[in-house]
Structures are given as C-alpha cells and as structure tokens.
Amino acid sequence: MMKCIITGLGNRGRYWIGNIARRSDCEAVAFVEPVEANRMRAVEQLGLDESKIFASFDEAAKAVDADFVVDVTPPSVHHIIAQQAFDAGLHLIGEKPLSDDYQIAKDVVEAGERAGVKHMITQNYRFTGQPRTTRKAIDEGLIGAPEQADVKFYMNWADNPGSHYVTEPFMLINDMMVHHFDLLRYVLGADPESVRAITWNHSWGWHKGDAAHAIVFKFPGNLVATHVACGCAVGSRTSYNGDWRIEGPNGSLDWHSDGTVTYSHLHRVEKPEERQVPLLDVLPADQAMLDEFFAAIKEDRQPECSARDNLKSLAMVFAAIESSKSGKEISLSEF
Q1: Closest by alpha carbon to 126, among 58, 75, 181?
Q2: Do residues 121 and 305 lie in contact, with contact meaning Cβ atoms separated by under 8 Å?
Q3: How many CB atoms within 10 Å of residue 328?
Q4: What is the C-alpha end-to-end distance of the chain, expressed in Å?
Q5: Helix, coil or strand: residue 79
Q6: CA 289, CA 294: separation in Å to the nearest integer?
Q7: What's the pLDDT band for 11 if we cut at 50, 70, 90?
Q8: How does strand 2-7 pair with strand 261-265?
Q9: pTM above the 0.85 mark?
Q10: E strand spans, 76-203
C-alpha cells in the first residue's frame, strides 16, 4: 500500500483526494494546507480527520510515514514543496506546470535527480483516447511520416473575474497550452527546434494578458506544427483537446470535438478512403497517470511525463512567450 501526503486543499486538492480515495493500492495519510479557512472547510465539507491536516509540510513529514507527495499548490511554490519532498526522500507527482519560472524548473529537475526519487508531472491530456490512438496510428505508418500538424482551440477560457488566469500575462499559453504543446511532442514523437508566435487580445475579451495567438513550431525534417487559439471565444467551441489535423504523404488524421479520430486518403490513391479510427480502450487519465507513476517507482525507471522530459514541453511555453515579446523566431536550443 502506497502512502502519500497531499499538499494543498483548494479545489484541485479536493479533486486529488477523490482520486486517491478511489484506489485500493494507496491512501492519503496526511494533508498540508497553510490557510486555516481551507483546513476547516476540508474538515467540514470533505470529512477529513483534523488530526491529519498540518499547516506545514515539515510537520506532516515528521508525523507520518509516506512514500510520495502529491503537490497541488500554486505554481509559484511548486519548487518549495518539491525540495521539501526531496529532502524527505519522497517521490513526487506534481500538477503542471513544473514551475512558472523556467530556470527554477531546471533547478527542481536537477534536485530531484540528485535525490534519486521519481518526479512526475501531471500532463494528463496525453493519456486520453485521441492522442493515444493517434500516436499508435502514426507509429504504425498509417499516414506515413507526418509533415504538418494543425491545432485549433476556441474556448470561453477562464471566465472568472479577478483570478490569476485573467489578471496575469500570457496565461492562456502558460497554463492551458502547456497541455497542447506536450500533446504535440507526444503525438508526433518529436521535439521542436524553433517557434514563432504572434499573440493578441480581442476588444471583447476579459483577459489582461493576450488570450489569442498563432504559433508555428518547426520540428526536425520537414515537420511543421501550427497552433491557433482564441481563449475568449463567444461562439462555437472546440473540445479542450482542440481540433487537430495531421497530414502525411499517405493521408491525414483528424480529431473531432466528439472525441473521435478520422483517417482519410482521398487524392492520388486508387481507392479513396475515409473512416473512423477505432479508439484505443484507455483508462481514465488520472488513474492511468497514477498507474504509470507507481509502476515507475516499482520498476525503478523514469515515468512518462517525468520532470526531466516535461522540461521540453515547458520550454515550448517559455519560448513561445519570448517569441511573442521579441517578435522573433526563437530557437528551442536556447532553453
């Protein structure tokens, strides 16, 4: 039985309490929350044992025997919780982003490696049916080597006045698009070499930071990926996965808002074909992530979405923001 300490009892903390409670192979033995009102709310609304809730991580780590930490704190303090977990010799699974500062993120990755523990970031989008199915189809050569991937994302995103999503700069890229950038790396099985980004706001938008963009990532070979988004869409919406089209010499793969994937090859082919690709039978993403995390610990290997690997997805975020600010194409080798 794996035992964990959950840090942070806000909305996401309560979400992870449910994830852990539904499993038979682990349990939460302590909780950390510095804000008294949040501690009391967790007792009253979630029925947590008050004696298991601590105001600091150090108190919790001294009071219980645990195997790993679930970090559900704000990004600005992820590095603090990470170092405390590493100092205690505990494995760590943390919510994305790894950090809101790229240099700090690099330092955290290195600290975890020095500590010899497993450190995984919860990039849960890649564990769902569309990306898993598409990655398999590409690996099997269904469309040949892809040379273009286009992603569109239209959503009334983070419409909550006063939240940091609305008041801080570049939050659509910083918070939401790390999911899609990680998906691009996973689905295409490659890492980009450069990025060019243009960002802006619409007159009717509610975000202080730019919430619309057109981004071009160049990958090795002839592969180019575009990402177009509007976070203040008031009309029709994509899914949170976005609408995708991946083009290769032997056809294309399309993602649709209903969760399906379509393969088509209609031009310069003897028998034109268009059909749905059977989706792989996958576990719920949060269950799959914890399965992978526990397997990595048991097998003494790096988990998928390890902190080291996730740096590459985070680099895409910060490089895109730098490109928007500078008006220049940015090499990912600079990160």
Answers
A1: 181
A2: yes
A3: 12
A4: 39
A5: helix
A6: 9
A7: confident
A8: unpaired
A9: yes
A10: 91-94, 119-121, 148-154, 194-200
Q: Is 120 helix (H, G, I), strand (E, B) or coil?
A: strand
What are the Cα distances from residue 215, in Å, to 111, 233, 234, 240? 32, 18, 21, 18
14 pLDDT tier (thresholds 50, 70, 90): confident
Closest CA to 112 of 296, 292, 290, 332: 296
**Token code pair at residue 101:** 């500062």
User: Can you tell me the distance from the alpha carbon of 152 to that of 109, in angstroms, rounded to the nearest whole number?
Assistant: 31
Q: Which two tokens stand for residue 330?
A: 């940015």
Taken in order of first residue, the domains within the chain and their CATH numbers are 2-117 (3.40.50.720), 125-282+315-334 (3.30.360.10)
Q: Is the peptide bond before 74 cis (omega within 30 degrees of 0)?
A: no
User: From the CB of residue 4, how many other CB atoms can be counted at a distance below 10 Å?
Assistant: 24
Burial of 211 (0-12, 13-18, 19+ CB in 10 A): buried
Task: For residue 196, give Cα distances in angstroms to 199, 232, 318, 326.
Answer: 10, 22, 12, 10
